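Long-time lurker. I teach an intro course on protein structure, and each term I like to show students one example going from raw sequence to a predicted 3D structure in token notation. This year I'd like something fresh instead of my usual example. Would anyone be willing to generate the tokens for the chain below so I can use it in lecture? Attribution to the forum is fine with me.
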Amino acid sequence: MIKGILNRYALVLETIAAAPCGLTLTEILHATGLPQGTIQRLITGLLDTGFIEPSDGRKVYVLGSRLLRILHLGTPTQVLDSLAAPVLQELVDRFKETAFLAALTDSAVQSVAMAVPSGKTQAYVQPGRVMPLHAAASAKAIFAYQDSAVVDGVLAGPLKKFTARSQIDKNGVRAELEQVRRDRFAACREELDPGIFSYTCPVQLDGLGLIYSIGLVGPAERLRRFTERTIVAGLHDATNKISILLSSR
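-- Reply from a regular --
Happy to contribute to a lecture. Here you go:
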């Protein structure tokens, strides 16, 4: 019985997913062949869970932000790497430092793609590396936009002091996340690795919350060749481009 119910929900979702502009209740009825009472119950359940939502307040149904967020969280690393590669390379060409994309997976932020300047063997970000909330710019840029309950969960345990500059006071971490939301970028100034600076900007995806960030990392003395404003402007330009690529997927 449960399997049959789930199959009906899946049928409705597949039908709506095949129509990017959305479908009315009548159109869903005709496309699925299910009874009207059944469709109405299924639509109500999917609306309540956020798996579908009305488009622009009209009775035209499209896939909901909760479902789309789940789909993005399940995007294979290889796909993200392929999508992000040209955007990251543009940053590398401009600043001659390592550029990277980070993503929220479960309750952790990990680096998922990077581009390294030609001729430089030292990489400061390794794909798959978990980024600590209190010390990594990429994690700050993402967790700054998560629910307070999520942040509290990540901060529940003791915070590791990676360097003398690491912020391990939890109230101080929360205050920094508020600053990130105001400034729309995060910085790591030798908080994770000695002598290494990193700047990261959040990637906004319409209706999906925030699960990606894009950043630049390198030795402090080399990044100081550029003003903070110049670096952040370059990162914002990159986030706009990657947002379009990820949204289109």
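Some talking points for your students: The longest helix spans residues 228-248. The chain has ten helices and nine strands.
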